[in-house]
């Protein structure tokens, strides 16, 4: 087995998100691999029109404020991890799809995601980590997070 050369960590902004990112950084350092960070915006309203997506330029627009807050949170995490700006990704979409698509596009060897130990109905409905595991073309490490 070859060493990992490119590691992608998918971060959310939960209280445990930084722990997942730090584990990914540690793994990347052990393998002397490039570390990239991705955050998928799936909870900010994205206006849609027949001509494509429009992001309002009005300073008082709530969506714009939410987007700026997400950008700042990602920047803080990436700065803390010393991630090169060219290896930072902020995209809109469905998390499992965007994570696996970026991993394929960037020829990622290992995806690191956080995973909550789900029980009952949540197991049947699935999770981002489970979706990434089943659809990724590379190895996936799920970091167990407390419920």
What do you see in this structure?
The protein contains five helices and seven strands. The strands form two sheets. It has a five-stranded parallel β-sheet, with helices on both faces. It has a two-stranded antiparallel ribbon with strand order 3-4. Helices cover 40% and strands 24% of the residues. The relative contact order is 0.21. It has a single domain, classed as 3-Layer(aba) Sandwich (Rossmann fold).
What is this entry, summarized?
This protein is of the alpha/beta class and 147 residues long.
Tell me how many strands there are. Answer: 7
* Helix fraction by DSSP (H/I, runs of at least 4): 40-55%
- The quaternary structure here is single chain
Rounded to the nearest angstrom, the distance between the terminal CA atoms is: 34 Å
The strand order across the widest sheet is 5-2-1-6-7
CATH superfamily grouping? HUPs
* Helix-strand category: alpha/beta
Unreliable stretches (pLDDT < 50, length at least 5) are 119-125
Mean pLDDT: 83
What top-tier CATH class fits best?
Answer: Alpha Beta
Percent of residues in beta strands: 15-25%
Shape designation: globular
Annotated CATH architecture: 3-Layer(aba) Sandwich
Q: Give a quick account of the main beta sheet: strands, pairing sense, barrel closure.
A: 5 strands, parallel
The helix/strand series, from N terminus to C terminus, equals EHEEEHEHEHHE
CATH topology: Rossmann fold
Blueprint (SSEs and pairs):
Elements: E1 6-10, H1 17-31, E2 34-41, E3 48-49, E4 52-53, H2 62-81, E5 88-92, H3 95-105, E6 110-116, H4 121-125, H5 128-135, E7 139-145
Parallel strand pairs: 1-2, 1-6, 2-5, 6-7
Antiparallel strand pairs: 3-4
Helix pairs in contact: 3-5
């Amino acid at each position: 087995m070859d060493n990992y050369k490119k590691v992608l960590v998918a971060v959310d902004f939960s209280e445990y998100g930084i722990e997942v990112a730090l584990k990914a950084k540690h793994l990347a350092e052990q393998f002397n691999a490039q570390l990239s960070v991705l955050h998928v915006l799936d909870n900010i309203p994205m206006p849609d029109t027949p001509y494509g997506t429009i992001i309002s330029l009005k300073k008082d627009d709530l969506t714009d404020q939410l987007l700026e807050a997400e950008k700042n949170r990602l920047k803080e995490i990436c700065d803390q991890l010393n991630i090169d700006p060219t290896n930072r990704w902020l995209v809109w979409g469905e998390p499992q799809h965007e994570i696996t698509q970026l991993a394929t596009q960037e020829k990622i060897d290992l995806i690191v995601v956080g995973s909550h130990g789900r029980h009952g109905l949540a197991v049947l409905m699935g999770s981002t980590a489970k979706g990434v595991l089943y659809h990724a073309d590379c190895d996936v490490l799920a970091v167990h997070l407390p419920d």
